[in-house]
Specification:
The complex is a heterodimer of chains A (309) and B (85).
Chain A (H helix, E strand, L loop, with lengths): L12 H13 L13 E2 L2 E2 L4 H27 L7 H21 L4 H21 L4 H12 L10 H5 L10 H23 L1 H6 L8 H50 L3 H45 L4
Antiparallel strand pairs in A: 1-2
Helix pairs in contact in A: 1-9, 2-4, 3-4, 3-10, 4-10, 7-9, 7-10, 9-10
Chain B lengths: L8 H48 L4 H22 L3
Classes of the chains: A mainly alpha (309), B mainly alpha (85).
């Protein structure tokens, strides 16, 4: 594992493994940001690794989705080609399999753009976490340019701190789930009106003492749904990376335990194929997690629109 | 549904598989929502109880209350999905 992090001298490999794994999946330290920005209203606006990744994802989504679609619309013949063709099949799948069944045909055009934005953004953010671009930059820096990891003034060493999967950061998933939270409320209000939406939270025609129990449960349920979205996405994206790093760490751990380099190297016969297999699984997870977040957002928005008690 | 031109048997098989997959996806949505809400409710209220316990120094009363309430809320949401008309 190529790391720009400081090595803890005087402690064993086992003591360092946990710290190293956390270093590789968590955000970079706000005390050592990639780009310094001043405090605004007491909040440090400096750019950390995950913020940088969010910017990269925003640019990638724009280039890969918005540009081909604008070009397709400008062409005006209604026949998508190349990238626009690929995007159309994804859009059609999300619309027909997720948006229409959960929200109903009347609300497709209102909510499909939000659901699709979630899908593409999360998909790109998850996928970029699988690309070892910073590790390669680190290797280039270390072995080609000969700059040591301890050189904290070097820019490439600076961007090596922290993980690359922005969707593995709870702050990012909280922000995405907050959008869903407000989308649920807005969808309900648009479909039924302000007063009726809040009335729809609980079933009608029950004895009043039941409402004393049901209203707090429904209000808690309102917050629980975005929380489930938040935890699920961040935990799944972090979990896979932790598993890969833990399996790769076996080589160093066993080499130290048995005080034998041969043991460490032989364990590579297990660790590397296993890590490769989990990486393959992670590629599926990247797709599935973007899909599940999209599906659940559509289900929750649909529950506010199509109220059945 | 994704339109598939049924030229030969393999196209037919692919089209049928895709339509079946879309059908499963449609049916799995509410079930996935209920399952994740059940898990989320227990975790959310359990964690809330845990942190409130630490703040008020009442361990483990609020944690247990949070977990209990989480189970109630989670199963209520699950029941809503199951008994939906």
């Amino acid at each position: 594992m190529i790391s720009g992090g400081e090595q803890t001298h005087g402690s064993g490999v086992i003591d360092q493994v946990g710290e190293n794994i956390i270093h590789h999946v968590s955000n970079s330290d706000i005390q050592h940001p990639i780009v310094h920005f001043p405090h605004i209203f007491g909040i440090d606006m400096s750019v950390t690794k995950h913020v940088l990744m969010l910017w990269i994802v925003a640019v990638l989504v724009s280039v890969a989705v918005i540009i081909p679609i604008r070009r397709f619309l400008r062409k005006g013949d209604g026949i998508p080609t190349g990238m626009a063709n690929a995007i159309e099949s994804v859009v059609q799948f999300i619309r027909d399999s997720i948006v229409v069944p959960n929200l109903g045909p009347k609300w497709v055009n209102a909510w499909a753009p939000l659901i699709l934005t979630f899908f593409f953004f999360i998909l790109f953010a998850n996928a970029i976490g699988m690309v070892p671009i910073f590790d390669l930059l680190g290797a280039f820096n270390r072995f080609v340019l000969g700059i040591p990891a301890s050189d904290s003034h070097n820019f490439i060493n600076g961007i090596l701190h922290g993980g690359v999967t922005a969707t593995g950061n709870f702050n990012v998933t909280v922000a995405l789930a907050t959008v869903t939270f407000f989308a649920i409320i807005i969808a309900g209000i648009k479909a039924h009106g302000f007063i009726q939406h809040w009335k729809n939270l609980v079933p009608h025609g029950l004895p009043w003492p039941v409402y004393i129990i049901l209203i707090p449960i429904e209000i808690i349920g309102m917050f629980v749904k975005p929380f489930a979205l938040t935890m699920r996405l961040a935990a799944n994206m972090t979990g896979g990376h932790v598993a890969i790093l833990a399996i790769l760490s076996f080589m160093a751990i066993f080499a130290e335990m048995f005080n034998s380099t041969v043991t460490g190297v032989s364990l590579a016969l297990f660790s590397i194929p296993m890590a490769t297999a989990i990486t393959g699984l992670e590629i599926i997870v990247v797709l599935v997690q973007a899909y599940v977040f999209t599906l659940l957002s559509a289900v929750f928005i649909g529950m506010a629109i199509n109220v059945h008690h | 549904m994704i339109p598939i031109i049924m030229g030969n048997d393999s196209d037919h098989f692919f089209g049928k598989s895709l339509n079946q997959f879309q059908r499963f996806v449609r049916q799995s949505g509410p079930a996935a929502g209920a399952a994740y809400t059940l898990m989320g409710a227990i975790l959310f209220l359990g964690a809330l109880g845990f942190f409130l316990d630490q703040y008020f120094n009442t361990s483990p009363v609020l944690l247990l209350l949070g977990l209990g309430l989480g189970i109630v809320v989670g199963f209520y949401e699950l029941a809503k999905t199951i008994f939906k008309k």
